[in-house]
Amino acid sequence: MTQKLFTRNFILLILGAFETPTVQACIPTMLEGENIMKGNAVVNQVASLSYLIAPMLGGVLYAAFGLKPVMYASVGCFFITALFECFIQLNYQRSQSKGSVLSVVKQNFISSMQYISKEQTSISKMFLLTAFSRFFVMGITIVGLPYIVRTILGLNAQYYGAAESTLA
């Protein structure tokens, strides 16, 4: 049996992971000065809150109403959000860089790595500690939690959402 890895659903899932970095990249064009830090903090707080509440609320709604109403509500919320985003206006600022996109990305990556490794070494230490801990925690959460809740404990999806929110 052969299966394709890059199915339509897989590609949509991967593209959804770019939403938060895209929002964070827009913050400097919408805000100035000290407000940039405040804007990034708000974006991160909203993302953290959604990671905490969404699994629990999804599990409860799934158990109460079933899958179709939850999916219809998700699609509706997506389109309402897309409608609101249509009204966001960003000023276009033409960059002064010369060269191809890959050379600009390469230069930005090199300069950021130099900044992290030479000027702000505490950032690189925190990054390594976070990466190390997430490596273990995410593996246990993604693989172990559904198995424990559904198979060992024999609970339904409602409890899985609550368990995932509790771990978040």
Give structural notes.
The chain has 168 residues and is mainly alpha-helical. It folds into two domains: 8-91, no CATH class; 99-168, no CATH class. The protein is 79% helix and 0% strand. It has helices at 8-16, 19-30, 35-65, 67-85, 101-119, 121-152, 157-167. Helix 2 runs antiparallel to helix 3 (35-65), helix 3 (35-65) packs antiparallel against helix 4 and helix 6 (121-152) packs antiparallel against helix 7. It starts with 7 loop residues before the first helix and ends with a helix. The model has no long low-confidence stretch (mean pLDDT 79).
Summarize the entry for a quick read.
The protein has helices at residues 8-16, 19-30, 35-65, 67-85, 101-119, 121-152, 157-167. It is an all-alpha fold and 168 residues long.
Which structural class is indicated by helix and strand composition? mainly alpha
Cα distance, first to last residue?
36 Å
Task: Summarize the amount of helix as a percent range.
Answer: over 70%
Largest sheet: none
Number of DSSP helices? Answer: 7
- Averaged pLDDT: 79
Number of strands: 0
List low-pLDDT spans.
none
Overall structural domain count: 2
Strand content: under 5%
**Shape, please?**
extended
Radius of gyration: 20 Å
What's the order of the H and E elements? Answer: HHHHHHH
Which structural traits does this protein have?
mainly alpha, single chain, about 170 residues, 2 domains, 7 helices
Furnish the topology, listing elements before pairings.
Elements lengths: L7 H9 L2 H12 L4 H31 L1 H19 L15 H19 L1 H32 L4 H11 L1
Helix pairs in contact: 2-3, 3-4, 3-7, 5-6, 6-7
